[in-house]
Amino acid sequence: MRKLRLVFLAGAALIGLPAFAAAPFKLVPDHDLTGTYQVTKPGKPTQTLSVEYSAEARLAKIVPSNGRGYILFDLASKDAKMVMPSMQKYVDQPALAQRAAATQASVGGTGGSDNVTVTTQGTKTIAGHDCTIYKSTDTTRGTSSTLCVTSDNVLLELTSSDGADILAQSVSYDTVPVADVTLPPGYTQLEIPQMPGMPGMGGAPGMGGGMPMQGMPGMAMPGSAAGQ
């Protein structure tokens, strides 16, 4: 389920998880956002994902191109749910949200880390929007990422030293109804049984295979050591 993990983390980057304390941007859009992004990683097929974000509710919906399911993310509570429409079920994913927050610190210097430096490297236009280019370097991990962020905190591009890449294909500021980014009525929680001898591991039927729920190799923001 590595594709979905990469998609989730790409989406987490797009809507801010959490703000980058050491950087002049916070990656939480100032307004509603609808966007389409291309996600690539060495040796993996290119993925397209769509993101809807409601600034009023601080809720986001991240949909991969395979159409098998999607992620709902609550920025206020840092809660993530994997939703499976074919089953009308969802699976809570707190470990994904926690891991995304921890690894994003190595890109943005969250928590006041002195090991991450962020420098400005000019401007460019992506998908019709102007953005400022920043380079973030983690001297402890020996990793770096380059981001292009608009003045209203929308991430349009991210490239990392491990070769992973996120690039906006289209971005609009249309109003996003809160109902579009919340769990549909009638959906129930799917409990994932643990596999013997592997605490925290489980599979989500209908999502293309098993999905580790915590301690997942490769579960990291592009550019962080955990994703090498």
Spatial ordering of strands, largest sheet:
7-8-9-10-11-1-2-3-4-5-6-12
What structural category do the secondary elements indicate?
mainly beta
Helical proportion, percent range: 10-25%
Q: Low-confidence parts, pLDDT < 50 over ≥5 residues?
A: 106-112, 197-228
Number of strands: 14
What share of residues are in beta strands?
35-45%
Outline: globular
Order of helices and strands: HEEEEEEHEEEEEEEE
Radius of gyration based on Cα positions: 17 Å
Q: How would you state the average pLDDT, rounded?
A: 73
Number of alpha- plus pi-helical segments: 2
Total count of domains: 1
**Biggest pleated sheet:** 12 strands, mixed
**Beginning-to-end CA distance, first to last residue:** 17 Å
Briefly summarize what is shown.
This protein is mainly β and 228 residues long. It is 13% helix and 39% strand. The protein has one domain (2-113, 167-222).
Q: How does this model look, in words?
A:
With 228 residues, the chain is mainly beta. The protein has one domain (2-113, 167-222). It has 2 helices and 14 strands. Helix 1 packs across helix 2 (94-108). Residues 106-112 and 197-228 have low confidence and may be disordered.
Key features of this structure:
228 residues; mainly beta; twelve-stranded mixed sheet; two-stranded antiparallel sheet; 2 helices; 14 strands; globular; disordered C terminus
List the helices and strands and how they pair.
Layout: H1 2-15, E1 33-40, E2 47-54, E3 59-64, E4 70-74, E5 79-84, E6 89-92, H2 94-108, E7 116-126, E8 129-138, E9 143-149, E10 155-160, E11 165-172, E12 188-189, E13 201-204, E14 209-212
Parallel strand pairs: 6-12
Antiparallel strand pairs: 1-2, 1-11, 2-3, 3-4, 4-5, 5-6, 7-8, 8-9, 9-10, 10-11, 13-14
